[in-house]
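Anyone up for a design puzzle?
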């Protein structure tokens, strides 16, 4: 039960994956959104304004104004001159996870973001997986994403401390110790898969010394991991039950409603089916994912004039994304339940302390030194790292 302490000495996620970063903080809503075309239009509107008008549109905070001097985000192409006199096209928007299972877009410009967490940008590549919390029950406690994580609930834990899948962000000696119990040393993705399967609401992770139970948890976690990451491949429901648009969605989205008997999702007069009940009821962070996804695209815009620049009609891309999201949620909900004694016989935190795996060295809780490429500082100067 939530709030009731467990008594089995499971390993805290904070020890399993020692390095974590506070979630990025935008400070203003308009640099992110579900439609990249709107983001470019917002940027263009900002660039056309001058002086006090630009400052007002920007929505300054204590951390960022149009006069702030900041460096370029690692690996991105945003400018470094002060925003008050900047010109030119919008930096190419990148995909970001802004809420559980809600993939949107972000203008990757350091000048627009109050707390961009450059240490995360330095290690973001095709091998990286970010782990983030969902913010509470019901639903899965953790998410995994290959996109830049803007989820604001809980700390962000990269799977790797360096680019290229180098130096796993795991307690030193953990995989070697597990190898003595399981008969083979697990790789970092297997540890992450197990974590997704076994993690509990209090963010502790029971571990097992039983190879069969480990394989069962890893198999389930690998499936969940693939559904969260996907790598560009669209999942399919078994038996050809892929959701389709059965009645055209309106240009302007209407009310969202669900019919359980028909297994149909309605947007105004538009109809998508089949939509399994499990997909409709799937929750993360205490809210229905499909409802929150829809609200993020059709609800009232956030404060500020730039946030009001939005699509005037429902983009076709949103329909494709919605169909894929329905499939992902349905497949996640259909993952077979794991036995309550999955971790028996357990590998406890006390076992890891006795083996010298815990406590982790203090350095593992700090970012690794990543100096592979020079970074541009404010006004085009070379950043000193």
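Challenge accepted. My sequence:
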């Amino acid at each position: 039960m939530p709030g009731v302490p467990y008594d089995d000495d499971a390993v805290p996620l904070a020890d399993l994956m020692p390095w974590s970063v506070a979630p990025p903080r935008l400070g203003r809503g308009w640099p992110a959104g579900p439609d990249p075309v709107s983001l470019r239009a917002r940027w263009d509107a900002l660039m056309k304004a001058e002086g006090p008008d630009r400052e007002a549109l920007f929505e300054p905070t204590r951390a960022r104004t149009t006069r702030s001097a900041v460096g370029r985000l690692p690996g991105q192409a945003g400018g470094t001159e002060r925003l008050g006199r900047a010109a030119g096209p919008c930096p190419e928007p990148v995909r970001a996870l802004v809420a559980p299972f809600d993939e949107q877009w972000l203008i990757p410009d350091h000048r627009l973001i109050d707390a961009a967490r450059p240490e995360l940008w330095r290690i973001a590549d095709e091998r990286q997986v970010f782990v983030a919390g969902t913010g509470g029950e019901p639903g899965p406690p953790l998410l995994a994403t290959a996109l830049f994580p803007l989820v604001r609930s809980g700390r962000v834990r990269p799977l790797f401390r360096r680019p290229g899948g180098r130096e796993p962000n795991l307690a030193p000696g953990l995989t070697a110790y597990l190898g003595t119990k399981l008969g083979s040393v697990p790789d970092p993705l297997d540890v992450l898969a197990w974590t997704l399967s076994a993690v509990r609401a209090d963010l502790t992770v029971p571990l097992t010394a039983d190879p069969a139970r480990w394989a069962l948890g890893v198999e389930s976690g690998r499936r969940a991991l693939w559904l969260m990451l996907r790598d560009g491949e669209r999942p399919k429901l078994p038996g050809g039950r892929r959701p389709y648009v059965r009645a055209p969605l309106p240009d302007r989205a209407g009310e969202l409603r669900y019919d359980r008997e028909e297994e149909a999702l309605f947007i105004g007069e538009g109809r998508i089916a089949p939509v399994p009940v499990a997909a409709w009821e799937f929750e993360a962070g205490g809210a229905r994912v499909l409802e929150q996804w829809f609200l993020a695209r059709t609800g009232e815009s956030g404060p500020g004039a730039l946030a009001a620049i939005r699509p005037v009609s429902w983009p076709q891309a949103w329909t494709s994304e919605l169909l894929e999201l329905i499939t992902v949620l349905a497949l996640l909900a259909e993952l077979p339940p794991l036995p309550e004694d999955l971790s028996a016989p357990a590998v406890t935190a006390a076992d890891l302390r006795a083996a010298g795996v815990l406590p982790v060295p203090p350095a593992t809780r700090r970012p690794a030194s990543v100096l592979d490429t020079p970074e541009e500082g404010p006004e085009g100067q070379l950043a000193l790292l």
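A detail worth pointing out: The CA atoms of residues 72 and 323 lie 36 Å apart.
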